[in-house]
Amino acid sequence: MASIVIENLTKTFGTFTAIKQMNATFADGQVTCLLGPSGCGKTTLMRMIVGLEKPTSGRILFDDRDMANLPPRKRNVGMVFQYPVMYQTLSVEENLALPLEQDKSLSSAERARRIDEVLDVLDMRDKRKLFIGDLDAGSRQKVAVGRAVARRSDIVLFDEPTTNVEVHAKLLLIRAFKLVTQRLRQTIVYVTHDQTEAMTLADNVALMKDGKILQYDTPSALYETPATEFAGWFLGNPGMNFPPAELSGATVKTPLSSLPLTASATGLPKGDYRIGVRPEHVDVLVAPRPGSVPAVVRDMNVTIAGRFIVTLDVGGATVKAKTNGRPPVAVGAPAHIGIDPAHVSLYRDGVRVADVTGHAA
Amino acid sequence: MASSPGQSAFKDNRRVIIFALLAPVLAFFIVFNTIPTLWLLGLSFHKFSLLSGMPPEFFGFRNFQDIFRNRNGIWGDLGRTFTFVGVGVLVQTTLGILLGFLFWGSKDMPGRRLALTLLFTPMVLTPVATGTFFRFIYDPTFGVLNALVGWMSPTGTIDFLGNPQIAFWAVLAVDCWMWTPFMTLMTLAALGSVPKAELEAAEIDRLSWPKRVSLVIWHHGKFILMLGILLRTIDSFKTLDLIIPMTKGGPGQTTRLVAVELNKQSFESFNMGWSSAYSVLLLLISIAMTSMFIFILNRRRKGR
User: Fold this and answer.
1) Are residues B247 and B281 both part of a single domain?
2) Do residues B247 and B215 make contact, with C-beta atoms less than 8 angstroms apart?
């Protein structure tokens, strides 16, 4: 077991900087998801951790061991690629056995036991004698996962492993993956651009953008209290609403609330203030309630699980709301919206600066 | 289902278009390939010399009998040619693979591009020019090679192309010089066809180099490499233009390959009937070799 420590890490390709002065620690025995849009440097970071790319400057340590100049084979890591790698002339069983055979300290009985264990976890016992031609992409990727974890290396890395797998197989793969991680407690880094995957699998999510980690937090904290407007916008579907706000002392005024709100901090400097509120915390109402404001419904769309996404105009701002079931309003008709102060945060110049504690007296 | 008139017209049209597109190629192929081959086959059963001025005279299998009775020493030529092909292709493949791996493994080396370009130049030279240059290089009195290694001989000079013991190997060495780059190129192409992720996975899985080659590289690269060997074998079997400027088949018959003798019999002695029979035999040998390669290429994993 080992934690991954990243110190002042920078990687440039020609004039393009993929990773900028990064510092982070990915905790021992936990699943860390690197989440971010394409080109944010998440795959580059992973390839440097495994040793397939050399850092331009900075260090990577596993616990206190510096990994500089160590080739991947000496780092004791496992890795699963986007492209399902399976040695094509070997059966499923032989594929799993191959990395174990490189470890001379294992007895053959121990090797057989580990292969059986992995086959069980992956639910592939009946497929052990099959070859690549007999397997779909999902099963091939499961073999790759099995090969990476059977060695019980300290660290296992996953580079968008579900990209080339069709939806049903993807769910099976993620379930197998969860079982494996719960069983083996290795330190895992999992690269993905799929927020659902990151939210489902991770103990901690590192949200990346432009070669930097914007926020390293638990999935729920990242979702509930995103540290930046980018995080709020990138996570959730649709992303967080950021209507403008005015701050005086600890009192926040916003077009989304007829009553002023109270910020948890005072004496904040001037800047572009906005409140952040998730669409599911915006209530669409027929009759007004204390704090609610009138709005006009501009658009309404049904989405997964019978939920509706409603777009409303409120005093110059556009707000999206997510409701369970069809809301009691019609497109083009007036309505009211209310927000729950407990789920509102205050942002200045794109960065979260304070909670909102409730309505001001 | 009743097809509408429009549909069937379209189908007919398609057939016409396919035929119209293929027709020129087929005509070309028949005129310049099929007819000459059949002509050759027919001529092989005739006695026909361009010098005699007589029309072809039906001869039955006499030409073939002549060949099997070793007229003009053709069994010696065939044996020599097989040695030339076997040793040549083996050396070229071995060196080509080694050089291919060298260039593959040194992607960051400065000057790699220049070195590759220089390496490939022998391959693009005209064989006749190469042969002529090597005749000068091998020359016993003013050749460069003698200036370098002549001291190794007790007489102070080595007559590379004049010494019956050396000439064959000297010619073979030129063939290797010329065609090893081709096998390097094929090796690089074969290595390029290996998915990068599989190589990276093999590194992370701590596989030894022999395992990486046998499990990953060979599996993906074998087809292209075998294709290169096949092309080299066929090409090497008909080597002529490299030999003519160097030795013309001599000294004695030590560098006389099948194509050299065929060239002499047909285009110097104008012995058309006999040459045709010889060509037919060589064609059959080429087809047999190609079939063997294709069989090996198509052979699947045992037990699957």
Assistant:
1) yes
2) no
Q: Which domains does chain A have, with CATH numbers?
A: 4-224 (3.40.50.300), 238-359 (2.40.50.140)
Residue B230 lies in a domain: yes
- Whole-angstrom Cα distance, residue B142 to residue B157? 10
As averages over each run of 10 residues, the pLDDT of chain B (304 residues) reads: 52 82 92 91 85 81 82 84 94 94 86 88 90 89 81 77 86 93 93 89 87 88 89 90 86 85 84 87 90 78 41
User: Does A102 contact B208 at a Cβ distance shorter than 8 Å?
Assistant: yes
- Interface A–B counts its CB contacts (< 8 A) at 49
Distance from CA of B219 to the nearest CA of A (A): 8
- B176 and B44 belong to one structural domain: no
Task: State how far the Cα of B104 lies from the Cα of B209, in Å rounded to an integer.
Answer: 14
Q: The pTM is what?
A: 0.77
Whether A102 and chain B come into contact, CB under 8 Å, resolves to yes
Domain membership flag for residue B93 = yes
By the 8 A CB rule, do A143 and A97 touch?
no
The span from the CA of B97 to the CA of B190, in Å, is 10
- B159 and B95 both lie in a single domain: yes
Residue B211 lies in a domain: yes
Q: CB distance from A99 to chain B under 8 Å?
A: yes
Domain that holds residue B25: 5-58
Instruction: Tell me the shortest Cα–Cα distance from B303 to chain A, in angstroms.
Output: 12
ipTM of model:
0.78
Residue A154 contacts residue A62 (beta carbons within 8 Å): yes
Q: Which chain A residue shows the shortest CA-CA distance from B220? A: A88
Residues B224 and B128 in one domain: yes
Taking CB atoms and an 8 Å limit, are B204 and A71 in contact across chains? Answer: no
Instruction: Compare CB distances from A83 to B195, B206, B216 and report the shortest one's residue.
Output: B195
User: For residues A151 and A115, is the Cβ–Cβ distance under 8 A?
Assistant: no
